[in-house]
Specification:
Two copies of one chain form a homodimer. By secondary structure, chain A is α/β, with parallel strands linked by helices. Chain A is built from 18 helices and 17 strands. In chain A, about 40% of the residues lie in helices and about 15% in strands. The longest helix of chain A is centred in the C-terminal third of the chain and has 23 residues, at about 360-385.
């Protein structure tokens, strides 16, 4: 046993309690290695006598050290120093070691990655963004650093409202718009408005992220098959869903644009029963190469059944964590009474920058630029796959940033994807977007049935080729390789 | 009936479908008032004949106009123009009118507002913040505008980890930290990790916003009374709660700092059963005027039962929408497997600015500055209420940005608050923070019982005086007025 007590000087006037001083002293001794693992400390009684402090003081110090993992108390034999790593070593090492590494976003290991979600950021007007930011910060005083309205600042809501009306025919007031840091957050908020255990219907295949979010809500999910016009209304009706999550402008990943007739049927379904809603995710409406875009579904909604959801992450930059939703009036009321205490997730500075970027026309100019850029890539890609008609049917080519190739020769998806990978090209199989259900506590028999039906050995293999982030040369070379790989 | 069809020129080569042209034409006629409310339109058959288009084209155009609220279809008599406001007028006007106004944050109507949440932003280093922002944007290219890691960027997590270890004794790895845009968002995320219907215990009185969040989770809430050391462990144990939300460093609003003994009991409670957790909201640990601050509760947690929650909104600026939570390993595993697909709510740019602000020592300098500023205000306020001992007991004066005055003369809270208001001074009654439960579907009998017990006619009136945002002159003058008002 070390001559520990002798060296401690406890000072009554130090501003620290005696307990704290003792606790800190011993902790330092352990940390610096002056007290070694498995070494026994003086008994509490002995120490309190030696130091002329109360027994409670010593007990508290030892107690804290035990609680923090520096010491172990062994009944009837005393206090012992734990292994050198101190509090980092309390029996959870393996677990910790595993969790220590934050999983990184998978970086593409392939030379040519036809990712359907990647975008081209080379034309982003960085200089403009910087200029706006700088100007805003010059004027910024405390107002800018204060907490804004929970729904988002009125200026930005008004700007978004105008933009949506002009470009997507959305009919709303700025008061109906709720701004949030990303679609995921807005969906979390929406869960609070829609309520618990709401049966939700989704198109199948669908957007994987949205599916996972609804799963995390523990919403019973019905996966509804699609035909060439989009979601099958009969199947939707059968599903008993109360809310349907749809992408009418350009369904992801099928690229189907829902025609007006089907839209009317869908709105009709929503109007059939109290409390039914359609969540319209208009994620990708900015880029269209053929035909005039239909306005949003919300534009045709006279009954207040559409929750319109959009984001600037795709049209501007992923780092711009600004999404918005347009709430129909009944839900807006509910938001006001139950959720508007939740603080805005977007800083006023960021809202102001974005507002000026849109309001002053930079956004439109950038969109126009990107429409040309993507159109060039789109035309190039379509040109490159011309002549593949015998092997593949091309679809989804009128809009967005990806096309779909559906096999005509009876090959399976996996072999197509693998053959591409061998040629250092990544393409994406449709089956990843066809949802199945596993390990849920909900009654999902119907869901599973439908999922399996759709997972389909029956339906021909489809692969997805995104071209947003690829250069023209990369598209050309990538397709050249695919041509050989899939010969 | 108007000579409508004659004037329409449908062009097959216009790039718009015939349906679209027809739809747009009629819509314009209605919008501009060429077609008047209640006017009947030509029958679909007549119109298709006159225009030499298919019946479907006309039906679709009419259908869309009905759906958008421009027309009403009356069975067997035809289509009629709706009232002039078109789609803005579909029977929801009153509701819309009401919802149109976004409720503004209540601005203080009082000359002297002793708000316990307001902070002093006059010393914020705006110039530094701007400089950092500018430098970051100079280097920023696409990397900065890309989407970062869902948990937050590693640099910032590492910086926060160091800061928390140094200032609060928090023991964690950067991998355990999840960054989010505000505590509210992090609590929404936490709900997904903790699960549904988790019985949660809160101190009473407590932080109103957290209470509302837990209510929105539909968690059964037990409100646990406090004694002078904080939450009563016996009552906590009786409550059957699985999770307890606590503020050990400085309970809001009581200002109670939980001593080490009670902390050990609390950690003991958490360790008693599988799946129990303590949410430590360390919202206000930066400002302390007397005595050395105890380290965080998390620092004493050897069992991985504490979820540590903190924010920069208070210590830096409300607009800095950056909060963080430290997850114990079992919850971290769950986060990884179930929630890490949820995108980060804080942009990389904002994360980078904050990281440099802390890493390069500006944050510490600012905190030191603010400690002095608040200490001066604190000492002044305490000096001003010296001599009030006969009327009030002062508490919560060792830390934070508010003190509490508890009446000794049997006056009730409302009369104290009102008397202050008559003198144009706003003070805050404690009862607003004592929670009661109304209109819930949960079994809350015990909760109501406790709430009523605490709402207490028995306990003496307590008012809260915050001084964070008031100038020294305002504090002096405000107290002068209170002195007269409460004579």
């Amino acid at each position: 046993m070390k001559e520990l007590p002798i060296r401690i000087r406890l000072e009554k006037e130090s501003g620290k309690t005696l307990y704290e001083q003792l606790y800190e002293y011993i902790r330092e001794e352990i940390r610096t290695g002056s007290l070694l693992p498995d070494e026994r400390l003086p008994s509490a009684r002995f120490l309190s006598d030696s130091l002329q402090v109360s027994r409670t003081t010593v007990d508290m110090a030892y107690g804290q050290l035990v609680a923090e993992g520096y010491l172990t108390a062994k009944p009837k034999s005393g206090y012992f120093v734990n292994a050198t790593e101190g509090q980092y070593n309390t029996g959870m090492t393996a677990e910790r070691e595993k969790a220590r590494q934050v999983p990184k976003e998978e970086e593409s290991a392939f030379r040519y990655d036809f990712s359907p979600t990647a975008i081209d950021m080379t034309h982003f007007p960085y200089a403009t963004w910087k200029k706006i930011t700088k100007n805003i910060l010059v004027d910024a005083k405390s107002r800018m650093f204060a907490l804004g309205e929970p729904q988002g600042d009125e200026e930005l809501r008004t700007t978004i409202c105008r933009y949506l009306h002009g470009s997507r025919g959305v009919n709303c007031e700025p008061a109906q718009i709720v701004i949030g840091a990303g679609n995921d957050f807005l969906l979390l908020l929406l869960e609070k408005l829609l309520g618990r255990h709401v049966p939700v219907a989704m198109e199948n295949p669908t957007y994987t992220r949205a599916y996972r979010i609804f799963r995390s809500f523990a919403y019973p999910i019905s996966l509804i098959p699609m035909d060439e016009k989009g979601i099958c209304i009969d199947r939707l009706r059968e599903s008993g869903a109360q809310v349907a999550y749809v992408m009418p402008s350009r369904q992801y990943p099928t690229g189907i644009s829902m025609p007006i007739g089907r839209r009317m049927e869908l709105l009709g379904w929503a109007a059939e029963a109290e409390g039914r809603y359609l969540i319209e995710d208009d994620y990708d409406s900015e880029f269209r190469y053929k035909g005039r875009p239909l306005p949003s579904l919300q534009a045709s909604d006279s009954q207040g059944r559409v929750i319109y959801l959009g984001t600037f992450s795709k049209a501007i930059a992923p780092a711009i964590r600004v999404s918005y939703m347009v709430l129909p009036y009944p839900l807006l009321e509910k938001y006001r009474s139950e959720c508007s205490f939740i603080s805005s997730t977007v800083s006023r500075i960021d809202q102001t920058i974005l507002n000026e970027f849109i309001r002053d026309g930079y956004f439109e100019r950038y969109l126009n630029k990107m429409r040309k850029v993507y159109r060039t890539k789109h035309d190039l890609l379509l040109g490159e796959v011309r002549g593949w008609e015998k092997d593949f049917a091309v679809s989804g080519e009128n809009a967005g940033l990806h096309i779909l190739l559906t096999d005509k020769r009876g090959r399976d998806e996996e072999s197509l994807v693998r053959a591409a990978q061998k040629a250092d090209v990544r393409v994406y199989g449709m089956s990843a977007f066809r949802m199945t259900v596993t390990g849920s506590t909900e009654k999902l028999t119907n869901e599973v049935k439908i999922a399996e039906e759709r997972k389909g050995k029956n339906s021909p293999a489809t692969v997805i080729l995104g071209y947003g982030s690829l250069s023209e040369t990369e598209i050309r070379e990538g397709i050249e390789r695919l041509k050989k790989a899939w010969r």
